[in-house]
Amino acid sequence: MRTYHIVTFGCQMNKHDSEHIAGLLESELGLEPAEELRSADVIVFNTCAVREGAEERLRGQVATLKPLKVANPDLVIAVGGCVAQHAKERLFELLPHVDVVFGTHNIAELPDLIERAARSRGRVAAVPESCERDLESTPSIRESRWHAWLPIAVGCDNFCSYCIVPYTRGRERSRPIEEVVAEAERLVADGVVEITLLGQNVNSYGRDLYGEPRFAEVLRAVARTGVARLRFVTSHPKDLSDETLAAIAEEPAVCEYLHLPAQSGSTRILKAMNRGYTREQYLAAVERAYAAVPGLALSGDIIVGFPGENDEDFEDTLDLVRRCRYDQLFTFLYSPRPGTRAARMTSDVPREVAQGRFDRLVDLVQQMALEKNRAEVGNVVEVLVEGVSKRDAAMLTGRTRSNKLVHAPLPPGVEPAALEGSLVSVRVTEAHPWHLVGTVAGYQRL
Ligand code: 5AD
Ligand code: SF4
Question: For the chain, does the N or the C end have fewer beta carbons within 10 angstroms?
């Protein structure tokens, strides 16, 4: 039996796409998952171009495959995702062992491309700007039985000056509400407990289809399909509506969790980033969210070292981060992306200066996360059990509605498999910066 292995870099959209790649390879090429990468007949890299680091890791990993390719001339190596979409055929020069290059718009044609490459033992590339076959109607093999990604829109029209996504994923294309709801209903019937709606900017969902954003509506409609938990990423602060906040507060299935990237706390830098809001407007959106949704957990993204960022700008960022009381913050060092507007800006922040700022921000985030987690001690939280801890098979691990990682000892006499994918109540006993520890207080659902 011929086998495959998929290596996925980057965001949730890529994780979702890889589930379709697995579905296509199994149903259309009859492949089976390989025990390990080294034994696979088809290796697929689903790549990320958002920051340089992921590209370097890709180059490193593909380079190590040379001996496999020499030992097995029938091995097919395919590279897709955002790096492929951006580099197109040039990728064959950068990564000489690659047989297939496929873009973000034509994943559904991958089985055909692999067949052609295998037959001709030659290189095949397909990176058009639009799709022939709808990916969502192709089979998918979910990594998790109880969790599903559900794209509501793909692409982005915002053109933040540092970001490559509008170039690799194209303009925003929303899926009709009925189609999204029908898919959610299928997922629920299939035993899915938690759905994450995906879009580069979910708040503007529907603008291209209906002439106005209809995110709150699709959120409420999916929440009413019977799914136990509903999440969504990513919200753009400039488009966060009161209707959306009301839907989070009122729909029991929607988790009290909002990922609202600020990117910077300095209005001057936000302007250069083309984010479409000021520091004050962002802070006001956060206050609106906290006021509208009791128990809200907030997360965000910050880029450090954007061209022209001075000490004062960075102090503004630290101050904004403190004021926002984030539960979780993802911090990134600015990475110039060829082809974007920011890449042509010349006022680079020296590497050591950016690194120093980054380290200060990470310290603050750790302190803040610990503070927020300490406030949870003594509370009973709902945890969706993901399995047992990698380090200790006697510990269950899962996530709260606020997306916090929780470890709790497996109750005596209970098999982990019986709890995987179910919701349990956990009394929190210990707080750490990146996780909570507790004891199982009851099962809500088995
Ligand atoms: N450099 C650093 N971080 C970036 N991000 C996007 N583009 C870049 C870049 N060129 C970050 C943003 C975004 C997250 C997914 O990645 O914070 O919200
Ligand atoms: Fe990139 Fe900005 Fe679009 Fe997010 S909103 S994908 S950061 S261009």
Answer: N
